Amino acid sequence: MNRDENIVSSRMVTIPVSGDGMQDEEYSFAAMWQTIFKRKLIVLGVTALIFTGIAVHTFRAKPVYESVVRLQIDPGRTANLGLEDVVNERIGSEDVDTRMQTEVKLIQSDSVAARVIGAMSLAQRPEFMGKGAILAQTDLKAMSPGQRQGILGNFQRSLAVRIVPNTQLVEIRFRSTDPRLATDVANSVAEQYMQRNFQAHYEGAVQVSRWLSQQMEELQGKAVDAQQKLAEFQKNHNILGESESENIVTDRLKLLNQQVTEAEADRIVKEAKHRMAETGDAELIASTIPTPTLQVLRGQEAELKSQIAQLNSKFGSGYPKVREAQTQLARLQSAIGSEIENVGKRLNEDYRSAAKTESLLRDQFNAQKGAAYKLNEYAVQFSVLKHEVETSRELYDTLQVKLKVAGVTAGLNSSYISVVDPADIPATPVEPKVRANLVIGLFGGLLTGLLLAFLTESFDDTVSTSAELEMFTGLPVLCSIPVNTFPRLKGMVGAAATPPPRPMLMINPRSQAAEAFRGLRTSILLTTPDLQPKVIAIVSSVASEGKTTVASNLGVCFAQRGESVLLIDADLRRSSLHSQFGLPYSPAGLTTMLTQRTNGSAVVTPLESLPGLKLLPAGPHPPNPAELLGSKRMVEVLEGFSAEYDRIILDTPPILSVADSLALSNLADAVVLIVRSGVARRKAVLRVRDLLLRSKANLVGIVFNCANLQLENYYGSQGYGKAMSTYYRSNDEGVAE
Predict the structure, then answer these.
(1) Which of 285, 362, 536, 538 has a 20 to 30 A CA-CA distance from 345?
(2) What is the pLDDT, as a whole number, of residue 25?
(3) What residues contact 27, with CB distance under 8 A and at least 6 apart?
(4) Quick check: helix, strand or coil at residue 300?
């Protein structure tokens, strides 16, 4: 089989490709946790910054004290001369909540505030106005509009009035940096509010008293005329008492109606019992209409049945005592049947008697109802006359009483307001709330940090996890290589400072990274189990993604398996494969083989530490690397080495930087794409994938390099990652396998 046939026949891996795999991605809780862990510095930094700012502001703020006065306000006693008592009986009571809200607005009014400011000379007190803001005038009317609005606004901002729910209590709260001033102002607000209400109600009481005197004579005449008309109507129509309902006809109708209702209810109950007795169901009758005799018989029957069951189980049905008991049971059941028949007859008689009584009472009720209809013809007129008499009489009597006590009421009508708890000097400040502010700062900072972390993550186009990489590329991730951390080598001077220039598999073959490379080797071999790839190209989208590191360690893996492996440094522009093994730069290499047709054995460098592994350096940098790598000579070189070595690994340049790798990828049996965590961008990876597939390269999968194992789903948590690290330590570090 020639070289081209070998290349074509080895490409048997079908790679699913989706146009945009991210559309199907679900942002699960695990993905959210990965984002938080990844951006933990942002979350912690923002949380600390906001928490520190709020804490500094809280501890530097000046303490504010609040004093409280509690008043009881009875809105039912706020009327002048009690006239609302008369009006409410006619038009309904006013909404109590509305009146309480009105009283609250009066307490918060500018008029009450002006009284307090003037009485306490607050405009000249620095603890209220602040340093440097003291005014010379104490009277608000003498101040300019700007000064007046300023001091009133300052007062209203410090004042708070609220109604205690489901009570008649109102709380007046005033805040100040001086606890004594807060107490004095709160008490003064309550006092000035009560004085204002006293004056307003006194003046209203005097005005109402004058109006009442003018209306008394007219009301007296109307009341006398209405009483005379009502008396004459009662005399002409034989109505007794003061109500149209107070007569013999209506009283008898009410009595008959009650008796008919009771008789009907009694008949329904007895009819139900009669229907139940007709069913003949002994158990139902005994449970619903129990009689002493029936209950005794039923008890005896149950006891006898129990005895028969015991005798049958013990001696059989032919036993004499069993027959004797069965005979007794038959007689007992006959007695129960007779008793049920007697109960049915008795219930039938009760039902017929109740039905007859109901019929007689209903006939009397219908006859009495006809007589009541005739009486109702005069009820409307009587009601109108009576209502007029009662209204005139009640209004006249009420106004007469109010007029007599108007002088006393005018001085006492503000007593619906009382002080329940006067204000005391507060012992502790209400602001700043240290604990609440610190909690708000902590959770607010944490929430802000989380939002900023997710916002940063939404703008981040780099790849973080292997699952994410598989999701949007549609390609399998062959392995995830953790961040390369060289272990300390005991007994080596300077070992902790500078790692030796060798692959990880040669430095620490028991590390996580070494095991990941072995998994990569297995994954590549399993991609084409029938015809294993011989030429493997290692590619990446951009530089510094770890192609050379992966190529060197993969070569060591195959060599440790007992194969003869050739590592070819095909990056003719920036060769570095020789430095992975601590070898110096070689002037002869792949370039000299392609340009001067040098023999391969003359430029291949063997490695003493691993006999099965050899290195072909890049050699000098040519002016036309793309043409050399895509030439027929390159195909001949690979065919020659394929006959000599079991495995050939190509370290290629970045695909998006130069076009060299595409030519080599088409010559390889398998192509492995290296993607570095936190470096490779999604668009770049997708671009490389599309270029390789369009060039018919056998792209078998992706190696996720420098993976953070704590973000990988299959490690789950930091604890498991530490356990894996401990498992892979060498025995010379004192850790058992």
Answers:
(1) 362
(2) 44
(3) none
(4) helix
Region of residue 735 (left: phi > 0; alpha: psi -120 to 50; beta: else)? beta
Nearest-CA neighbor of 671 among 561, 563, 535, 569?
535
Contacts of residue 499, defined as CB under 8 A and 6 or more positions apart, other chains included, come to: 486, 507
Contacts of 502 (CB under 8 A, 6+ apart): 580, 581, 582, 609
Q: Is the dihedral of CA 156, 158, 159, 165 positive or negative?
A: positive
Catalogue the E-assigned strands of 128-282.
159-163, 169-176
pLDDT value at position 647? 93
pLDDT of residue 23: 39
Cβ atoms of 679 and 544 within 8 Å: the answer is yes
Other beta carbons within 10 angstroms of residue 279's beta carbon come to 11
**Alpha helices per DSSP H over 479-618:** 504-507, 512-527, 547-560, 590-596, 600-603
CA distance 487 to 500: 11
Distance (Å, rounded) from C-alpha 379 to C-alpha 109?
Answer: 54
Nearest to 709, CA basis, from 728, 695, 737: 728
Residue with tokens 């129509």: 237
Measured in degrees and rounded to the nearest 5, phi and psi for residue 538 equal -105, 115
Residue (of 714, 702, 700, 682) closest to 477 by Cα position:
702
Select from 685, 670, 633 the least CA-distant residue to 538. Answer: 670
Query: How far is the C-alpha of 452 from the C-alpha of 464, rounded, in Å?
Result: 18
Q: What is the Cα–Cα distance from 107 to 185, expressed in whole angstroms?
A: 13
Angle at 545 between CA 540 and CA 548, to 5 degrees: 80
Q: What is the maximum span of the chain, computed from C-alpha positions, in angstroms?
A: 149
> Tell me: the pLDDT tens digits for 115-152?
888 888 777 777 777 665 566 566 677 677 877 788 88
Rounded Cα–Cα distance for residues 314 and 677 (Å): 87
Q: Return all residues near 338 (Cβ < 8 A) that are at least 6 apart.
A: none
Residue 469 near residue 478 (C-beta atoms within 8 A):
no
Beta bridge partners of 537: 650, 671
Query: pTM above the 0.85 mark?
Result: no
pLDDT at 602: 74
| Distance, CA of 528 to CA of 686 (rounded, Å) | 24
Residue numbers in the chain where pLDDT is lower than 50: 1-26, 79-93, 414, 485-500, 714-721, 730-737
Q: How many residues would you count in the chain?
A: 737
Q: 320-376 vs 248-278: helix axis angle to the nearest 10?
A: 160
**How confident is the model at residue 44, as a pLDDT?**
92
- In angstroms, the CA 193 to CA 157 distance is 18
Distance, CA of 472 to CA of 459 (rounded, Å): 16
CA distance 103 to 98: 9
Query: Cα 141 to chain center, whole Å?
Result: 54
pLDDT tens-place string over residues 615-641 = 999 888 888 888 888 888 988 889 889
Is 503 within 8 Å of 553 (Cβ atoms)? yes
Determine the straight-line distance between the first and last CA of the chain, rounded to whole angstroms. 47
Residues 6+ apart with CB under 8 A from 672: 478, 520, 524, 536, 537, 538, 539, 550, 700, 701, 702, 703
The DSSP letter of residue 268 is H
Question: Which pair of structure tokens corresponds to residue 33?
Answer: 């946790």
- Kind and range of the H or E run holding 704: strand 699-707
Other CB atoms within 10 A of residue 42 CB = 19
Question: What Cα–Cα distance (Å) separates residue 227 from each residue in 239, 247, 311, 397, 498?
Answer: 15, 20, 93, 14, 122
The whole-angstrom separation of Cα 108 and Cα 334 is: 90
pLDDT of residue 47: 92
Sign of CA pseudo-dihedral 312, 313, 316, 320: negative
Q: What is d(CA 172, CA 180) in angstroms, rounded to the nearest whole number?
A: 15
Distances (CA, A) of 698 to 7, 248, 271, 472: 9, 115, 96, 19
